[in-house]
Model the fold of this input.
Amino acid sequence: MRAVNELRPLTAGRLLELWRGCAGMAEDSGERALLCNAGVLAECCFQEGKRVFPDGAAVLAEMTPRQMESLLRALMEDAQPRWENPDFSEERFREMEERSWTI
Done:
């Protein structure tokens, strides 16, 4: 998945426009939801000020449904995406933080 460091929420009007556009794209509600969510993410995901995905098809080609859901939840909560560092140690961080105050 491409890196995303900013999520820009859509206006209610633009979101409604996307939903209406997806209404006729598929009969199956699950397929329609994926198409619509991909369209939303294509317009909301940015990296260093530039759109990450050119369109919904690119989102579908690169992201799993779980990845899409994670970004959509962050967008709904008006939060920015958080990428976890697998090597991060909370304990080591606290030790370093305490040492920095004693120097």
